[in-house]
Structure formats: C-alpha cells, structure tokens
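Appendix B, Record 12. Input sequence as logged:
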Amino acid sequence: MNKKKKIKYLSPIDIKIKRKKKYCFFKKNKIKYIDYKNPEFLIKFLNEFGKILPRKVTGTSKKYQKLLNKAIKRCRHIGLLPFITDELR
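Logged structural output:
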C-alpha cells in the first residue's frame, strides 16, 4: 500500500530576454582624448545629482571610464561643473 509518489516540482520557465548590447561610446566614435574643458559633453555621463554614472550603465570600457572620471574631476576642480546639484539637467 505504500506506493512511492513522485514529487513534481515546478521549474521556472526559460525566458530569453534579448538585451541591447552596450558599446563603448569612445571606441565607436574613435575618440582618443576626453577634453575636460567641455562641460556640455561631460554632463552626458552624470546623473541628475551630479554623480558620475558607472560603466555598467554607460557601457564605456575600463580605459575610457578612467579617463572620463579624471576629466570630470578636473572640470569640477576648475569650476566648470558643480560638485553637487539638485537638478543638473
């Protein structure tokens, strides 16, 4: 009378989400130097509070993210970009 019942578990459905591949803006446009004296361009890589966006969000490569950080910090230091804002854009 003790029949072993097979326990069936619900497995998650495999849903393949197609994500848009991120690319490095600087490699695609063949930019070798990031000018720190151009705040209009650098604002693209800041959020509304003035924080630098990470690589995960922007898709830039490690090399250009370092150069971008350095350019933004230099631009802030000479006073072209604010350090902290409520609404930058």
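The helical segments are 25-28, 39-42, 55-58, 62-77.
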